[in-house]
Amino acid sequence: MHHPVWPAILVLLIAMISIQGGAALAKTLFPVVGVPATTALRLGLGTIILCAIFKPWRLRFSRQQMLPLVLYGIALGGMNYSFYLALHTVPLGIAVALEFTGPLTLALAGSRRPLDFVWVLLALLGLWFLLPIGQKISGVDLKGALLAVLAGGFWALYILSGQRAGAEHGPATVAAGSLIASLIFVPAGLIWAGSGVWSWSLLPIALAMAVLSSALPYTLEMVALTRLPAKTFGTLMSLEPAMAALSGMVFLGETLIPAQWLGLLAVILASAGSTLTMRPKKTIAPVNELRE
Question: Domain-by-domain residue ranges, the chain?
Answer without folding.
Answer: 5-291
